[in-house]
Amino acid sequence: MDLGLLVLRVGLSALMLSHGIKKFMAFIGGDMSVAGDPIGIGGLASSILILIAEFVAPVLIIVGLKTRIMSVTVVIAMAVAAFVVHASDPFIKKELALVYLVGFLAIALMGAGKMSMDRK
């Protein structure tokens, strides 16, 4: 069970980082609106929230630190991506966000396992 949780945590988080790193690099390069403004809180605030969900959270989830709460941040971000950003798009455009949503929801519910810094 713990090995499976480790594989799920590291695998999903590494894949999510491929999205987060691009946005992080654009953000530090001066683009303060890397995520648009899908929920009406402003481009900068939206960008900070998405950077937490796609860059900071995956790094912490990989090492297993604050895994449940960090997974919830990713779940919320992917729900916004699937149901707000891609609301009118065909299913194929929503599918990746939904896969991440389900995977990180499973991590949030199960926790990090023994092979983590959380160690529960």
Q: What oligomeric state do the depicted chains represent?
A: single chain
Order of helices and strands: HHHH
Mean pLDDT: 95
Helix content: over 70%
Radius of gyration: 14 Å
Strand content: under 5%
Number of strands: 0
Uncertain ranges: none
Features:
120 residues, mainly alpha, globular
Structural description of this entry:
This protein is an all-alpha fold and 120 residues long. It is 72% helix and 0% strand. The chain is built from 4 helices and no strands. The chain has helices at residues 2-28, 43-63, 67-85, 91-110. Helix 1 packs antiparallel against helix 2, helix 2 (43-63) packs across helix 3 (67-85) and helix 3 (67-85) packs antiparallel against helix 4 (91-110). It is globular, with a radius of gyration of 14 Å. The model has no long low-confidence stretch (mean pLDDT 95).
Q: What is the structure about, briefly put?
A:
The chain has 120 residues and is mostly helical. It has helices spanning 2-28, 43-63, 67-85, 91-110.
Q: Which secondary structure elements does this structure contain, and how are they paired or packed?
A:
Layout: H1 2-28, H2 43-63, H3 67-85, H4 91-110
